[in-house]
Amino acid sequence: MKERVYNFAAGPSTMPIEVLEKARDELVSYGDSGMSVMEMTHRGKDFSEIFSNAKSLFREVLSVPDTHEILFLQGGATLQFASIPMNLMNGGTADYAVTGSFSGKAAREARKYGDVNLACDTGARGFDRIPEQNELKLSDDASYFYYCANNTIYGTEWHYVPETSSALVCDMSSDILSCPVDVSRYGLIYAGAQKNIAPAGLTVVVIDRGLAGKHMDITPDIMRYDVLIKNDSMLNTPPCWCIYMLTLELEWLKKQGGVAAMDQLRRERSGMIYEVLDNSSFYIQKAEANSRSFMNATFRTPSEELDREFVEGAAKEGLVNLKGHRITGGIRASLYNAMPLEGAAALADYMKRFEAHNTCLK
Ligand SMILES: *Cc1c(COP(=O)(O)O)cnc(C)c1O
Fold it and tell me: What CATH number should be reported for the domain whose range is 6-10+258-360?
């Protein structure tokens, strides 16, 4: 078998080796059940325990207060682009901060169900920065304020929680569980799990119970938060295997020291990459320094040709999936919870050697 690589993919993405090994050990027979988690009924005793363990671990790790419900759903982050306005907008107005591709998609989807006020749109500048609080244009009658905490494609991240009078709704797909969050400030937090916490197929929604039940009449039951809460995420079959994998990931995360330790690590990992970039006259960064992401570092070389060489050369050293998103081109290193510090150090070292090699040739 090939040795494991350092996988810098943006999602689905690297998972801790300890988690994968535990899943392998339990794959064909979970506990004394004599069957795989993949083969179990979701209404049975074994899976019920896994499910409630996932919920209580998640509540503990992210310090989710009792006012908020945790839902384990399918449909990806993208389904939430529609679920959120269909449940919370009620045909009225909502404020959307568009700071990247996914928040742009969410705003376009929401327009089908009510009025969208763009609190900001940094698209004209190529999504290179996060606006400051005083730049946000908030409407008086918004039912919620929507933003995306970390822009996975552009490599920018909100380093503050916006102050708004309406409920805060946040897409945390690519930075969930990477740092402590004061959940009580939010009406709704959601994340496609495949970036930072589990395999693809699971979406976690954390919602203030007070926000449920305000849906439009046409909202399908499978998208209604009140119905999903009432059925404890089991209106239909939940993504059982992913929920099981989430429990392993959460146990691993707790052992590492929880979200405070993850916050420290993400700063160290991205710090290694940004240090190389800041001391370079070769690499080009687009994201403004104070908006840069701790999760996805984006940069480029002086030419597309060299970008390609960079990505190919890195892969030969076991540093894989560094190609930037097709929208932006360039290079992107996703530095999620499961990326060891050694992976970031190896990439930083490769970047320095690549620069030295290509600057003495000139
Ligand atoms: C990947 C991503 C999405 C889309 O996720 P899907 O689960 O594929 O729908 C949305 N928002 C952010 C921030 C992402 O990184």
Answer: 3.90.1150.10
- Pair type for strands 68-73 and 156-157: unpaired
Q: Render pLDDT for 241-260 as a digit per residue (tens, 0 to 9).
A: 999 999 999 999 999 999 99
DSSP 163-189: P-SSEEEEE-TTTTTSS---GGG-SEE
292 burial type by CB count under 10 A (0-12 exposed, 13-18 middle, 19+ buried): buried
Q: State if residue 74 touches ligand 1 by the CB under 6 angstroms criterion.
A: no
pLDDT digits (tens, 9 = 90+) for 139-167: 999 999 999 999 999 999 999 999 999 99
**φ and ψ of 266, to 5 deg:** -70, -35
Tell me the residue type at 175.
Answer: D
Task: Tell how far the Cα of 318 is from the centroid of ligand 1, in angstroms.
Answer: 26
**Element holding 115 (H helix, E strand):** strand 115-121
State whether the beta carbon of 99 lies less than 6 angstroms from ligand 1. Answer: no
Q: 77 in ligand 1 pocket by Cβ < 6 Å?
A: yes
Tell me which CATH code domain 18-255 carries.
Answer: 3.40.640.10
Q: Residue ranges per domain, the chain?
A: 6-10+258-360, 18-255
| CB 154 less than 6 A from any atom of ligand 1 | no
